Amino acid sequence: MTAERPNETAERLWTVRDVAAFLQVSTSYVYKAAERGEVPCRRVGALLRFVPAEVRAWALGEPTVGARIGSVAGSTP
Q: Cβ neighbours of residue 69 under 8 Å, at least 6 residues apart?
């Protein structure tokens, strides 16, 4: 029996540094924008993580789902 692996073609979540580099802004801006609910993000424990497709859509002014800081689906608060 083999262990199940996540979809290897799935894009990994971005860190605050990744988003800052993509947007060409400081990491402090990304943290503050996430706290204000401006940039879509997920909370993984104490860390912020970002779905690249959501950040790209947000940067283009398209509506996004999950723009507020929240827990990853299936995790306990």
A: 34, 35, 37, 41, 42, 43, 48
Alpha-carbon gap, residue 63 to 23, rounded angstroms = 17
* pTM, 2 dp: 0.72
CB burial of 49-65 (b: ≥16 within 10 Å; e: otherwise) equals bbbeebbeebeeeeebe
Residue 10: phi and psi, rounded to 5, are: -65, 140
Low-confidence stretches of the chain (pLDDT < 50) are 67, 71-77
Q: What is the dihedral of CA 55, 72, 14, 38, to 10 degrees?
A: 30
Report how far residue 64's alpha carbon sits from residue 53's, in angstroms, rounded to the nearest whole number: 9
**Residue 35: alpha-carbon gap to chain centroid:** 12
Six-digit token string for 5: 């692996």
